[in-house]
């Protein structure tokens, strides 16, 4: 096993961390630059260093709250539990199979706890990785989601929303439902993620949604409706806003595609689809 050092990132690391990200993920330089611009407000980074070179990194995004109600076992004297989200775990190819990835994940989970996270969560990049993460830090699949295909059509008037507008609409519509409340910087980063792929935040009819383009198709990562019977109509209208012929709509589900992994139980109807995948 290599002699590597695990430490918290520093400002001087950002150039090398940007290069590491661009080598390991299919993201543009502008998107990565925006991530590092917002990182200190969203959380922190953990790096693995070998002989002065950065071999890998992982990030901890905190400041997100689980709004679950007074009767939920998470509740602590009425205070909403803090969620720590592990994101962007990457090890350069030449340094893999040396225990660096596992060490980064463990250190990220510890850092999340240091930042007062009550629950540690992440979204594995592949289904096969759920078991690996469970072995490393004890997280299990806590939420599932389903995917539907819907034809786009301008059935309702639609308009773009700023991240602040989306947050206000979202919190008002979800106030009585279990959901993840994102910090302002995290929600801004979510909008950047969508905008980088030709999308954004939208209102249409009785609902709001976050979506982007994926080739000829649109991806609606989250859709919240005041009237659930209008769900497909709102999705079709957001598809029209994206300028695609059809959209994939992701929704919480009792079973289906594994989604969020966590080290605590989470209500199965928790609205969480604004993850950083």
* Radius of gyration from the alpha-carbon trace, in angstroms: 19 Å
Number of strands: 15
Main sheet makeup = 8 strands, mixed
Fraction in helix: 25-40%
Distance between the termini: 30 Å
How much is the average pLDDT? 92
Count helical runs: 7
Strand content: 25-35%
Global morphology: globular
Q: Give the SSE order as H and E letters.
A: EHHEEEHEHEEEHEHEEEHEEE
Oligomer: single chain
Class derived from helix and strand content? alpha+beta
Task: Provide key terms for this protein.
7-stranded mixed β-sheet, 30% helix, 8-stranded mixed β-sheet, 15 strands, 277 residues, globular
In short:
This protein has 277 residues and is an alpha+beta fold.
Polypeptide structure, described:
- The protein is α+β, with helices and mostly antiparallel strands and 277 residues long.
- 30% of the residues lie in helices and 33% in strands.
- It contains 7 helices and 15 strands.
- Strands 1, 2, 3, 4, 5, 6, 9 and 15 form an 8-stranded mixed beta sheet that branches. The chain has a 7-stranded mixed beta sheet with strand order 8-10-11-12-13-7-14.
- Helix 1 packs across helix 2.
- The longest helix is centred in the middle third of the chain and has 15 residues.
- It starts with a strand and ends in a 15-residue tail after the last strand.
- The model has no long low-confidence stretch (mean pLDDT 92).
